[in-house]
Amino acid sequence: MIVIDGLRPDAIDAADCPNLRGLRARSASTMQARTVMPSITLPCHMSLFHSVPPTRHGITTNTWSPMARPIPGIVDAAHGFGRRSAMFFNWETLRDLARPEKQAFSFFTYHNYDPHSDQAVADAAAVWIPRQDLDFAFVYLGMVDEMGHRHGWMHDGYLRQVELTDMALGDGAGSLAAGWPCAAAVGSRRPRSQSWHRA
Question: Which of 66, 88, 174, 191 has the fewest CB within 10 Å, making it most exposed?
């Protein structure tokens, strides 16, 4: 699963994004997907990983806290069936999406507001996923969201980051999408977003 946090669907056509456009063209897609409310990174990802709304998992801000009535997430469930999972990310708060000792591999690099941080994550995913014999991998690219907060969504600095992340997708993690079943989720700052799936 590849997530580009903060990527508005209309930014794919507003910026130079040949890799994202190609993935969209080869995939089933929708412009009707909706995220949970509040549409904040951690509540959205908790819902994505646990298949329940924030009212059930209890995360409504970007601060993690344990669930009062825990339910297994996708990584926890995969581990329970003897499957191997990995996470590659550049926003440390996502480490809590999976419980300790449930992942076969984890890669984190602090983004330090470096526009090339998504490239580092994608490169690590491209190197390590084939070596780990994985059943599930999560690749989180978070710099589009960071630049949206910094410059404003759809402004020049944001669109430049969209293009850099598109290049990272093509150079690194995107090379994996060519050979793996792949689900990509595109985050939005609005309740409607776009997603596509290629099996």
Answer: 66
What's the whole-model pTM score? Answer: 0.89
Q: Strand runs (DSSP E) across the chain, as ranges?
A: 2-4, 28-34, 85-89, 105-108, 136-141, 182-186, 192-198
The percent of the chain in helix, strand and coil, each rounded to the nearest 5, is 45, 20, 40
Q: What span, in angstroms and rounded, lies between the C-alpha atoms of 55 and 53? A: 5
Pairing of strands 136-141, 182-186: unpaired
pLDDT tens digits along 61-84: 999 999 999 999 999 999 999 999
- For the chain, which residues make up each domain, given as ranges? 2-34+73-198
Please state, in angstroms and rounded to a whole number, the distance separating the CA atoms of residues 23 and 111: 25
